[in-house]
Design brief:
Radius of gyration: 19 Å
Shape: globular
Number of helices: 12
Strand order of the largest sheet: 2-1-4-3-5-6-7
Number of strands: 7
Structural class: alpha/beta
Strand content: 5-15%
Largest sheet: 7 strands, mixed
Order of helices and strands: EEEHHHEHHEHHEEHHHHH
Distance between the termini: 32 Å
């Protein structure tokens, strides 16, 4: 697993048995995401023999691009919360390697579930958080709740497992201010996604086939979209414990082409 040091901004690879505590980013992709080669280019670590060196020069990635700033801010947030390492899907996977990409797709659920914290960046939520009420309970402000419930993140296929797999999920607005944690807004998330609270608060695992039926999981998937049809199957791997061969016959065209 390739992680970014939140202080130095450099890559380091770890075997699964040697992984340190790390944060992980969940987000919806934009047009300026930082790729693996872009990251190496900006850190002056691009191998001279790299097949993608020309591609990186042509792209001419900028440290001020949206994707680069996203990586910088997520590192800053993790560092402020005492975490030295972070994983970001856009740049921590060398997508030029089919073997590495395949491993990442198959490992995604475990990587998110093993993370110390998952930071959800909501680019389309600008409202500032209001983290308390008169009776001491937590409640989103009216403005934050309205934007939160319509965030694009809740409609993407890949972010379903990024919501369910991690124990600790922290939601941030587009200024990287913390809005709430999954524990604080579990009921609101359940209302938005129609996922029962017991699968959001850790009481029950959504991968438990005895407690969470195929039909229930498919109903969650059916409300989400992916850019490519095949990604809908890939993002279901963790949710179905890697046993999609038993599920795909029941996946209808309507579910895959949302």
């Amino acid at each position: 697993m390739r992680l970014i040091n939140t202080t130095t901004g450099q890559f380091r690879e770890f075997y699964d048995t040697q992984r340190p505590r790390y944060a992980i980013l969940s987000h919806t992709w934009g047009d300026e995401e930082l790729s693996y080669l872009d990251f190496l280019f900006l850190n002056s670590n691009l191998p001279a023999s790299s097949a993608g060196v020309i591609q990186a020069f042509l792209r001419n990635p900028s440290a001020d691009s949206e994707g680069s700033v996203k990586v910088q801010e997520s590192c800053k947030l993790a560092r402020s919360r005492g975490l030295e390492w972070i994983w970001v899907d856009s740049c921590c996977i060398d997508k030029g390697s089919s073997a590495e990409l395949s491993e990442a797709i198959n490992s995604m659920w475990s990587w998110y579930s093993d993370a110390a914290e998952c930071y959800v960046y909501l680019f389309d939520v600008s409202a500032s958080p209001e983290r308390s009420t008169a009776d001491g309970s937590f409640r989103l402000s009216s403005a934050a709740e309205a934007e939160f419930s319509t965030a694009r993140w809740f409609g993407r296929g890949w972010t379903l497992q990024e919501l369910l797999a991690p124990r600790e999920v922290v939601f941030c607005n587009n200024h990287w201010d913390i809005i709430a944690t999954k524990a604080e807004v579990g009921r609101e998330i359940s209302r938005i996604t129609r996922i029962p609270l017991i699968f959001l608060n850790g009481s029950c695992s959504p991968t438990d086939a005895k407690l969470c039926s195929v039909a229930m999981k498919m109903s969650w998937i059916s409300r989400r979209q992916t850019t490519r049809t095949e990604d809908m199957a890939y993002c279901m791997l963790g949710l179905f414990d890697g046993k999609l061969q038993n599920v795909l016959p029941s996946v209808t065209t309507d579910m895959l082409c949302l």
